[in-house]
## 1
Amino acid sequence: MDRKLIQISDLHLFSDPEAILKNVSTWKSFERVISVIEETHADFDAMIITGDLAHDERLETYVRLKHRLGPLDSRVWLVPGNHDHRPSMAETFSAQVIPERETINFQCHLDGWQLLGLDSQLTGETAGAIDDAQLRWLGERLNSSRDIPTLVFLHHPPVAVGSPWLDAIGLTNAAEFRKIVEGAGQIRGIFFGHIHQEFQAELGPIACYATPSTGVQFKPDSDTLVVDARPPGFRVITLGDDTIETHVVRVPID
Ligand SMILES: [Fe+2]
């Protein structure tokens, strides 16, 4: 039986529900996206949030988000982005966080599939990196699950994305990450956010996908930050026995 995942990313929420970021009410936009997911994909098996949940790093923002997710929360997995406040995020979503790790990681098994979440936040920096402890953790997980098809989720792109200003703030140790994932034969996809646009590329034999923000969009192929008028969106990932199908759904905001 097929399994369905939803990826959302870069919510950039505030403790003030009226706050505006680059002319977008990020709460209103997020509310609309999550409502469409509830209306059209309520049967999803897992929802992965790939970072930048809060824009203002405030505990109240995470608490407000958890409250809005309500019963969906039990199917939600998450990793932080550069904007997140790791302690507040870990405190609020304690059920999703692997205890006694300094970074926010997840490992989820779903009907013959494995989902792994990596924390690429370099605290205080816009660019990201995966620290040595996580690289070891990832390598061990992959070594002990050679026959299990696996998806990897993180915030920062491990590949060039065609916009110089975004490539300058990507995953700074992508080469080390690539060595581990390319050496493992079971990864069927790598999913990230950070770039606020839909994007697809190959990392060796592995397909990589970026998902639009639930709020502000960035124009592809730009030298500097240019806001894109395209509506926000989310990604649907359908898991077969050993293959995936994925597409982005855009959600017009009135
Ligand atoms: Fe972001």
## 2
Amino acid sequence: MAKETEIKIALYTSGFCEAHEKVVNPKKGLNKLRFYAVWALIHVPDLGYMMFDTGYSNHFETATRSFPEILYKFATPVQLKHQEKAIVILSKKGIHHSEIKYIIISHFHADHIAGLKDFPEAKLICTKAAFYQTQNLKGLSAVSKGIIHKLIPNDIKERIVFIEDISSQTTNEFGITEYTWTQIPNFKLLLLPGHAKGMLGFYDKGSNLLFATDAAWDKDCFNKGIMPLQVVRIFIDSWFDLKDTMEKLSRMKHANPDMKIVFTHCPKTLQLISNEI
Ligand SMILES: [Zn+2]
């Protein structure tokens, strides 16, 4: 049983898109694989509720009706049931959207931020690199990097909080940058670049859980060091950093074999859904 003073984390999934298994593991075939959009609800004593990402929402459908955003919908057709939306899941738990004080944005890809507009009161935490990329890319260039501006709240500049400005920054023994927020010293945000610019994951010491976002798409591939199909390189921010981050996480896992490492889209992550970790 978690003590009252501890952070509580629960994982949920809001919709999924499909791709061929081959995309994730080049040795596999053309069977369809579901990419679940997993997010975390985090309760911090004295601070309240935070979320890490939001998964898909109805806003994805409305934001991708016209060119160039419609290309994103064609590339990753999304399935989302009403009861799977973050806002509905929270409401069933008795949590009003205004109780979510912070949403940590791992990175600005649509499958991670499509629900942001459902939480108009939340402060939005991310890295400077992730935020400024959204500001600098427009039109097709933005869509090709997984960024759909219509999903980003219009008042984001008033609500954004850069993790660099509210935390102390260190590099751990595996070479990964860790951001420690003074209010929650046992909960670290990890800089995991490669898949997307300035991408964040988190490590919670209490539960020994490392949520590595999209540093890999599949846990088996991560364990075996298998990189995605080369064709996805165009969507990846830096292939070099993706490989480097995977190697650093692999060393971190080997040094802490009991650590649970999970990835946003891996089917194995579903085993942890809805259960407090
Ligand atoms: Zn993703």
